[in-house]
Amino acid sequence: MVFRKIEEKDRKEIFDMMSVFYRSEAVSTSGSPEIFNNDISACLDDNINLYGYVFSENGEIAGYGMVTKSFSTEAGKECFWVEDIYIKPEYRGKGTGGQFLDFLRDKYKGYALKLEVETENERAIAVYKKHGFSELPYFVMAIF
After folding, report:
1. Entry pTM
2. Region 2-130: CATH code
3. Strands 77-87, 60-72: pairing kind
4. List of E strands, 45-141
Protein backbone atom coordinates (compact mmCIF):
# COMPACT_ATOMS: atom_id res chain seq x y z
CA MET A 1 0.00 0.00 0.00
CA VAL A 2 1.26 3.47 -0.92
CA PHE A 3 0.34 6.57 1.09
CA ARG A 4 0.63 9.93 -0.64
CA LYS A 5 -0.75 13.44 -0.33
CA ILE A 6 -4.17 14.10 -1.83
CA GLU A 7 -3.95 15.67 -5.30
CA GLU A 8 -6.54 17.60 -7.32
CA LYS A 9 -7.07 14.57 -9.57
CA ASP A 10 -8.33 12.70 -6.47
CA ARG A 11 -11.03 15.25 -5.57
CA LYS A 12 -14.08 13.43 -6.97
CA GLU A 13 -13.11 10.04 -5.59
CA ILE A 14 -12.26 11.48 -2.15
CA PHE A 15 -15.57 13.41 -2.18
CA ASP A 16 -17.45 10.20 -3.00
CA MET A 17 -15.69 8.28 -0.22
CA MET A 18 -16.40 11.09 2.27
CA SER A 19 -20.07 10.96 1.28
CA VAL A 20 -20.18 7.25 2.13
CA PHE A 21 -18.07 7.58 5.28
CA TYR A 22 -20.13 10.41 6.75
CA ARG A 23 -23.37 8.46 6.22
CA SER A 24 -21.96 5.44 8.06
CA GLU A 25 -22.26 4.48 11.71
CA ALA A 26 -18.55 5.26 12.12
CA VAL A 27 -19.28 9.00 12.20
CA SER A 28 -21.72 10.86 14.43
CA THR A 29 -22.26 13.77 12.00
CA SER A 30 -23.44 13.61 8.41
CA GLY A 31 -21.27 16.32 6.85
CA SER A 32 -22.31 18.11 3.67
CA PRO A 33 -21.01 18.68 0.15
CA GLU A 34 -19.75 22.11 1.27
CA ILE A 35 -17.84 20.60 4.21
CA PHE A 36 -16.37 17.82 2.06
CA ASN A 37 -15.18 20.31 -0.59
CA ASN A 38 -13.77 22.64 2.09
CA ASP A 39 -11.85 19.75 3.66
CA ILE A 40 -10.43 18.56 0.35
CA SER A 41 -9.52 22.13 -0.68
CA ALA A 42 -7.73 22.69 2.63
CA CYS A 43 -5.64 19.58 1.99
CA LEU A 44 -4.83 20.74 -1.54
CA ASP A 45 -3.99 24.28 -0.44
CA ASP A 46 -1.24 23.06 1.88
CA ASN A 47 -3.20 24.20 4.92
CA ILE A 48 -0.84 24.12 7.91
CA ASN A 49 -3.49 22.41 10.05
CA LEU A 50 -4.97 19.74 7.75
CA TYR A 51 -3.15 17.01 5.86
CA GLY A 52 -4.86 14.61 3.48
CA TYR A 53 -3.58 11.25 2.30
CA VAL A 54 -4.68 8.78 -0.34
CA PHE A 55 -4.14 5.06 0.12
CA SER A 56 -3.40 3.39 -3.20
CA GLU A 57 -2.59 -0.07 -4.41
CA ASN A 58 -1.51 -0.76 -7.98
CA GLY A 59 -2.59 2.77 -8.93
CA GLU A 60 -6.13 2.29 -7.56
CA ILE A 61 -7.39 4.39 -4.66
CA ALA A 62 -8.18 2.15 -1.70
CA GLY A 63 -9.08 4.86 0.79
CA TYR A 64 -8.13 8.17 2.33
CA GLY A 65 -7.16 9.71 5.65
CA MET A 66 -7.11 13.26 7.03
CA VAL A 67 -5.00 14.47 9.95
CA THR A 68 -5.15 17.80 11.79
CA LYS A 69 -2.42 19.51 13.78
CA SER A 70 -2.85 21.01 17.25
CA PHE A 71 -1.00 21.28 20.55
CA SER A 72 -1.63 18.87 23.42
CA THR A 73 -1.21 20.51 26.80
CA GLU A 74 -1.58 17.03 28.33
CA ALA A 75 1.47 15.83 26.41
CA GLY A 76 3.28 19.17 26.36
CA LYS A 77 3.91 18.96 22.62
CA GLU A 78 2.34 19.25 19.21
CA CYS A 79 -0.34 16.72 18.46
CA PHE A 80 -1.81 15.25 15.31
CA TRP A 81 -5.46 14.16 15.37
CA VAL A 82 -6.50 11.44 12.96
CA GLU A 83 -9.79 12.92 11.75
CA ASP A 84 -10.82 10.50 9.00
CA ILE A 85 -9.79 7.02 7.98
CA TYR A 86 -11.92 5.50 5.25
CA ILE A 87 -11.08 2.29 3.45
CA LYS A 88 -13.18 1.01 0.56
CA PRO A 89 -14.96 -2.25 1.42
CA GLU A 90 -12.92 -4.36 -0.99
CA TYR A 91 -9.67 -3.28 0.74
CA ARG A 92 -10.86 -3.82 4.32
CA GLY A 93 -9.46 -6.62 6.46
CA LYS A 94 -6.11 -6.51 4.66
CA GLY A 95 -4.19 -4.41 7.18
CA THR A 96 -4.60 -1.11 5.32
CA GLY A 97 -5.76 0.82 8.40
CA GLY A 98 -2.89 -0.51 10.47
CA GLN A 99 -0.40 0.32 7.73
CA PHE A 100 -1.73 3.89 7.64
CA LEU A 101 -1.37 4.20 11.42
CA ASP A 102 2.22 2.93 11.16
CA PHE A 103 2.84 5.46 8.37
CA LEU A 104 1.54 8.25 10.63
CA ARG A 105 3.63 7.08 13.61
CA ASP A 106 6.74 7.20 11.43
CA LYS A 107 5.87 10.50 9.73
CA TYR A 108 4.92 12.28 12.96
CA LYS A 109 7.46 10.60 15.22
CA GLY A 110 7.90 12.51 18.45
CA TYR A 111 4.43 14.08 18.28
CA ALA A 112 1.34 12.99 20.18
CA LEU A 113 -1.24 11.15 18.07
CA LYS A 114 -4.94 11.12 18.96
CA LEU A 115 -8.12 9.97 17.29
CA GLU A 116 -11.83 9.66 17.94
CA VAL A 117 -13.80 6.51 17.39
CA GLU A 118 -17.42 5.59 17.96
CA THR A 119 -17.62 3.16 20.91
CA GLU A 120 -19.67 0.75 18.79
CA ASN A 121 -16.89 0.48 16.21
CA GLU A 122 -15.21 -2.47 17.91
CA ARG A 123 -13.26 -3.52 14.83
CA ALA A 124 -11.60 -0.11 14.50
CA ILE A 125 -10.92 0.05 18.25
CA ALA A 126 -9.13 -3.31 18.06
CA VAL A 127 -6.93 -2.04 15.21
CA TYR A 128 -6.14 1.19 17.07
CA LYS A 129 -5.20 -0.69 20.24
CA LYS A 130 -3.04 -3.10 18.26
CA HIS A 131 -1.11 -0.10 16.94
CA GLY A 132 -0.45 1.48 20.32
CA PHE A 133 -3.46 3.72 20.94
CA SER A 134 -5.12 3.57 24.35
CA GLU A 135 -8.44 4.83 25.65
CA LEU A 136 -8.57 8.14 27.48
CA PRO A 137 -10.92 8.43 30.47
CA TYR A 138 -13.09 11.22 29.08
CA PHE A 139 -15.38 12.03 26.20
CA VAL A 140 -15.18 14.87 23.71
CA MET A 141 -17.73 17.69 23.50
CA ALA A 142 -17.98 20.17 20.63
CA ILE A 143 -19.84 23.07 19.06
CA PHE A 144 -19.99 23.01 15.27
Report:
1. 0.91
2. 3.40.630.30
3. antiparallel
4. 50-57, 60-72, 77-87, 112-115
